[in-house]
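Retro notes (design track)

What went well: tokenization of the new backbones is finally stable.
What didn't: we kept losing track of which sequence belonged to which structure.
Fix going forward: every design gets posted as structure first, then sequence, in one message. First example under the new rule, 191 residues:
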């Protein structure tokens, strides 16, 4: 007679079928919630991201403006705790009429700069940002950083120009909107 040394499946101790109930309370982490709100869906590839409009794929760009502002304020964005595009900070302070006006200004600046030779749009900006433009011919001699045009909420002209430089970036120069940029381009392109 052969004796079986292993336990048969019928003799195993059954697993408990009920687990004790616990109250689980999950709250969103503000940075994670904001990261999801600013993430582009689908994320543009480098060849897709040729203009500011190509980066406007996230919730903050497509959701109703009021909801975007409400979330930004609820997560304490105005205190500087969240990365945000220039136009959202300006909207929050009441300095900009609408998100659509900001998008139109970004598109106008893009047309102005890329309509001239040498200007290249760079989509790799901060989280939710609009990108910036570099003047490629300014990368000459010992200069390591080209002349750059970017949007800012630090003044109501909305534009900064950073001259080409080798080391130690100079202070950005304020430009008063599209017309101010157009008037300054001959000088800006000579740096």
């Amino acid at each position: 007679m052969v004796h079986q040394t292993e336990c048969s499946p019928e003799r195993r101790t059954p697993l408990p079928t009920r687990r004790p109930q616990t109250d689980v309370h999950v709250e969103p982490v503000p940075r994670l919630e904001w990261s999801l709100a600013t993430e582009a869906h689908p994320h543009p590839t480098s060849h897709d991201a040729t203009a500011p409009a190509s980066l406007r794929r996230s919730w903050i760009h497509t959701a109703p403006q009021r909801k975007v502002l409400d979330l930004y304020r609820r997560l304490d964005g105005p205190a500087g705790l969240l990365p945000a595009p220039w136009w959202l900070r300006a909207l929050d302070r009441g300095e900009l009429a609408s998100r659509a006006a900001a998008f139109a200004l970004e598109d106008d600046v893009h047309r102005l700069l890329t309509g001239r030779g040498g200007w290249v749009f760079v989509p790799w900006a901060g989280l939710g940002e609009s990108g910036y433009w570099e003047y490629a011919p300014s990368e000459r001699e010992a200069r390591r950083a080209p002349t750059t045009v970017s949007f800012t909420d630090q003044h109501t002209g909305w534009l900064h120009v950073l001259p080409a430089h080798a080391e130690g970036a100079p202070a950005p120069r304020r430009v008063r909107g599209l017309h101010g940029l157009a008037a300054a381009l001959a000088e800006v392109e000579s740096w």
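Added context from the reviewer: The chain has a mean pLDDT of 83.
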